[in-house]
Amino acid sequence: MKTEAFEPKILAFCCHYCAYSSADLAGVMRIQYPPNIRIIRTPCTGRLETEYFMKAFENGADGVLVAGCLEGGCHFVEGNLCAKRRVNYTKDMLEEIGVEKERLRMVNISAAMARPLADVITDMVETVRKLGPSPLRKSEVGSRKSEVRNLKLEVQSPSGFAKASVVAKAMTDKTPDKQPTAQSPQLKTNRL
Amino acid sequence: MIVAQRKNIPELLAIVEKHRKVLLLGCGTCVTVCLAGGQREVGIIASALRMAAKLKGRPLEVEELTIERQCDNVFLEQAAEAVKNADVVLSLGCGAGVQALAERFNGKPVYGGLDTAFIGILEERGVWAEKCAACGACVLHQYGGICPVTRCAKHMLNGPCSGSREDRCEVNADRPCAWQLIYKRLKEIGQLDRLKEIKKPKNWRSSQSGGCRQIIREDHRV
Fold first, then answer.
1. How many domains does chain B divide into?
2. Which of A49, A142, B15, B94 measures 20 to 30 Å from A6, CA to CA?
3. CA A37, A79, B128, B41 torsion-angle sign
4. What residue ranges define each of the domains in chain A, with the CATH number in brackets?
5. What's the whole-model pTM score?
6. CA A49 from centre of chain
């Protein structure tokens, strides 16, 4: 039986004040980027805990991208610097476990940087594609692709912001659905 | 508070090597404050253990629970049901918590997942420092509230060793000389004359050299 080519599943935590807005801008500008990214909006990358990254990998993410404001430009002064330290801590822990630390990356993007965001996403997808499927889900590759239906429902919760459970939902839901793209109407509904 | 730090993941995995159902039990007191064994760390380490075991092809179920305090029998009851359902308990409490668990659930293997380090305080965000050696005979009143037993690398009680350089300890240049701190503090509070008193050799019988210590309060016993 012919198996499907490996398509990385990458979870992107995007700060509401910068990277999430630049993803919006990328949509408005019709800039294309690979559809392997599942975006979760966060109020600030400083809100992200090590646990979120761990749960993402545990639930089958091939890579995790954290996109915060430019250093010195955080809406909450130093949230992105906190996130940077947590990402580095998590990288060390991933190495202890036996997962390549290159699967986790933090980038700094301003709200106006739509093109750089698309480039970063493209580069991240290529990096993870070269690394291959996460060692935690190698046996699953070739089976049906995971989809994002639950992610969409959770993100539209009254608070408007992502919950920790979103991470697990985004990676475990096997319900067949349409694959999202950069201009997907599913993701557009998540705007404020 | 008691300060501890986690063991690394391969070491934790080796500790629970022979077991399949593990209860990872956190403590909501000191180790929560020092970010080593609270609810958040239980979640992180449980995820890490599950992933590491999966990569090794080992079946491992990790249950997560955090109770208010592991070193108190009253609070241990909160964990009784979860302990019963697990093959082994991996505690993220301090050494006292692990032993309290082992005494309470005597039919169950209980292992420690942290390295308990010292009694200390949070000096700045992410930095904890030892402040008390629990010697059992406190001399802080004589030294302006700065403990030479703990903070002087040589435990000097009658003045500095003269090896310090620019108020840094000669044993560890990253740390301040305790005697420099004591002098400054006593000067600030106008008690420099305390330094003229010659301190007799410290009685260490109240410390660990006398074996495991115990305090009995007859007025509180029932």
1. 2
2. A49
3. negative
4. 10-176 (3.40.50)
5. 0.83
6. 14
